[in-house]
Amino acid sequence: MKLERTLALKNLRRKPARTAALVLLSAFLALSVFGGSVVVASLRNGLKSYEARLGADIVAVPYQARTKGTFESILLQGIPGMFYMDEQYYNKICTIEGVEAAAPQFYLASTSAGCCSVPVQIIGFDPEKDFTVQPWIRESFALSLGDGDIIVGSELTVPKDGILTFYDTPCRIVAQLGKTGTGLDTAVYTNMATIKTMMRNAESLGFHYLTDTDPDHAVSSVMIRVANGYDVEAVTGDINVHVRHVEASAAAAMLSSVAGGLKSVSGVIGILVAAIWVLAVVILAIAFAMISHERAKEFAVLRCLGASRRMLCRLLLTEAAFAAFCGAVLGVAAGALIVFPFGNAISTALELPYLMPSALPAAALALGSLLLSALAGALSAAVSAWRVSRSDAGLLLREG
Amino acid sequence: MILRAEKISRRFFRQRKGSNVFYAVKDVTLEIPAGTLTELTGRSGSGKSTLLNMLAGLLEPTEGKVYLDGEDLYALSDISRSRMRNERLGVIPQGQTALHALTVLENVLLPGQMYGNACSEERGVQLLEQVGIAQLQNAYPGELSGGELRRLAIARALALCPGVLLADEPTGDLDDENTRTVLSLLRRSADEGLAVLLVTHEREAARFADRHYRMDSGMLLEEKEH
After folding, report:
1. CA B14 → CA A364, A372, B23, distances in Å?
2. How far is B47 from chain A (nearest CA, A)?
3. In chain B, what residues touch A6 (CB-CB under 8 Å)?
4. Cα(A367)–Cα(A371) distance, integer angstroms
5. What's the gap in Å between the CA of A281 and the closest CA on chain B?
6. pTM
7. Any idea which of A94-108, A152-166, A252-266, B49-63 has the lowest mean pLDDT?
8. How do B164-168 and B89-92 pair as beta strands?
């Protein structure tokens, strides 16, 4: 094998243009395989994270918010939104049979005006009743939130003094959450008392978000947990029938629409990657066939010097493997430089939850892409290697 | 070391009117003894190179056998036959046959690296000195003239001290001076005990050879002394 390695490397080095073409083809292949697999993995992670962060069996919002898709825009794309309903709807929901727990949330969108540090979605929750936000917050902040305390999403920049102001309400950042890949990464969390204070200050600054409801008796959404033994769909139906002006949706149904989008995007990416892989294998196979044809006499000479058929086969495969491996490393590196720094842009373009894999799974994807690209290189050279090893050196030499 | 062909033939198929079978070599029996230079001449297409390739273990005869010191070459597996060719036969193929990715010296050392019978660098340089191109040892084949390339091929064929040297038109398209140099090298190899077969069109070769054969339409004819 040492001779094959040495000869392969020397051959590659002495033919830089040919080698560059092979390396570039392999790099393109590895880039598409790695880039595609990272995007698909990020979408899958995003869906899981979305599912985990939703944390409820049913979500109830004012009818208007549901039909406008405002609630999903907040969750998926981080587009700040506000919608309100009277607290009485929350109380009615609590009375529906099968509702084990119900946690109200209050939404407020900050503005880009001087009274607010950044325009974000502010989510207020009741620590006494909440069962969706706090388990997640506990991963970053073990204490309970005091008045004026906020926890910020992973995408927000924490100022040096740790203070963000919303509607002239200075808030102390006590923790920053881990990345979720959803719109919630740009959100701010606080308790009900703090967000109501912000709402009142907004009123006094001239922002009249609530015209017909008392802020102290308003909620934006209700997160519902269904008791054991009850059918989620049936409870959702009961809420929609018995609580007017409220649109309840089973979390599973919300997830399935996201999952549907994810499936189609993943499918398109999968088909594209597979097509590129097959195309690259075909192009590489043609390239290797041309190269081996051009080098037929060289192989015949090696036979004259005593190279066995197997040795010739190994020589061509080793050359292909070197070129494919170098290309794959370049391709994966280039892929990493595209999919990781531009993750947010990809997420925005896809409008789906997008959570990039952490170091270890990303390394596994890189390794898998390297192997798949090397396999493509070996496969594409295999036919030529077999033909070279089967060709009759005597006839080749006779034909010149 | 004796290389012997016993009634070997090589049949080919081709599309043409009438019979589609023709014999490039027909019923050839030939012995190449050690210490002799055997010259094989003939017109183009007479079967000289086909015969040489069969003797080198590169082209299996359709009939007959080739023996190297009594061992049937084509009864061996490809690996064993390749190894035997590497260790005991020196083959100088037709045309420019240097590997262009390797330097002159690396070309000469190459046969020694195939099965671990390493030819030392010292011997490689010595061989290049013998053929008069030692000063070009680090050059690449692209920098060499036609005559220098032929001499390189001879040095490479001799690298592992083979018992038999098979040269296929080693003086083709060389000028007179280079032709004489190459023929002298082959003569010297025979004098050193090698069995040398020289396939050539070169008239001057006869002067260097001990035995003379001519191929005509695949048949081998022994020629008397010139």
Report:
1. 55, 43, 11
2. 9
3. 113
4. 6
5. 26
6. 0.72
7. A252-266
8. parallel
Structure-token pair, residue A2: 């040492």
Disruptive mutation site among B22, B110, B158 for chain A (greatest number of A CBs within 10 Å): B110
Residue of A nearest to B91 (CA): A304
What ipTM was reported for this prediction? 0.91
The kind and range of the H/E element at B212 are strand B211-216
Residue indicated by tokens 């692209």? B142
Grade residue A255 by pLDDT with cuts at 50, 70 and 90.
Answer: confident
**CATH architecture, domain defined by B3-223:** 3-Layer(aba) Sandwich (3.40)
Domain ranges of chain A: 2-49+259-399, 52-257
User: How confident is residue A399, by pLDDT bands cut at 50, 70 and 90?
Assistant: low
Decide if A67 touches B, using CB distance below 8 A: no
Tell me which residue in A301, A311, A394 faces B59 most closely, judged by beta carbons: A394
**Between chains, do A400 and B95 touch, taking CB under 8 Å as contact?**
yes
User: How many CB atoms are located within 10 Å of the residue B191 CB?
Assistant: 12
Distance from CA of B80 to the nearest CA of A (A): 8
Question: And the tokens for A136?
Answer: 């997640």
DSSP type of residue A97: T
